[in-house]
Amino acid sequence: MACKWRSTDMVSREMGDRRQSVSRQPSFTLSEWTDAQEDLLDVEAEPQTPVFDPEHRADGDAATLTVTPVGLQERRGSNVSLTLDMCTPGCTEPYGYGAQLSPRDQSAQEYLREGSHVLTPAMLHSRAMDDQSLQAEFYETPMNFVDPKEYNYPGLVRKNRYKTILPNTHSRVILKSQDEEDFLSTYINANYLKGYGGEEQAYIATQGPTVNTVGDFWRMVWQERSPIIVMITNLEEKNEKCVEYWPEDAVTHEGIGIRVVSVTQEDDYSLR
């Protein structure tokens, strides 16, 4: 099966508030569609992201780096407290390994346009092996929080897993509905992402479906003709649960029938 893959670094640069660093081999659930055009990337993980020890000197031995594992929510902000000091505009405070926090007088979009570049497989491998520069780049990427006031609609809270993690308005996926005036019927917490070479809407990043959004999720998969679904999370992580949105055999959501025709179970992933 031919699959498209994106590094989490590329996802991070497109979706600032959905960034993650994988610290262990996650479980994957892949689903194939035969007549499809686009890929859908389902991102809602809670991996352990190391936080730099601010007491560590940039010229010190990298082997002596002290890190404190924290959940991704503490990096991107949600229902828990942030553990990172946020710079004021123009701040250039050193932050471990000699890295500096991102300048706040430059918008996230400008930063991503100027900082993004295509990597060859060899370059990607080299970057992946350099934890120091990879973590430095991760922390230099501007935070990307959407103002909740932009989504001030009654009843919308049940459509979002976290109240502070919202889709960017300029690239969010809009579900087709018979009533286009009903915002709730067209809303899903998902954004289009650019592809490896900069092509528009090559991927979709979305939250792990909840009890209230399983139907919306499958509507989006059908609407966008997504051939592959990659689930980068476990069903339960740190007491957070993702709904098992695929059936054991067959199920119907929002008039869309989903049937499992085969299952391949490997050590680190499942293929359906």
Q: What does this entry look like structurally?
A:
It is a single chain. It is built from 7 helices and 14 strands. It has 272 residues and is α+β, with helices and mostly antiparallel strands. It has a domain of 181 residues. The strands form 4 sheets. Strands 5-6-7-2-8-1-14-13 form an 8-stranded mixed sheet. A two-stranded antiparallel ribbon has the order 3-4. Strand 11 and strand 12 form a beta hairpin. It is globular and about 45 Å long. The chain starts with 7 loop residues before the first helix and ends with a strand.
State Rg. Answer: 19 Å
Give average pLDDT, whole number.
Answer: 71
Poorly predicted parts? 1-32, 34-105
* DSSP strand tally: 14
Helicity, as a percent range: 10-25%
Strand content: 15-25%
Along the chain, the helix and strand elements come as HEEEEHHHHEHEEHEEEEEEE
In one word, what is the shape?
Answer: globular
How far the N terminus sits from the C terminus, by CA atoms, comes to 12 Å
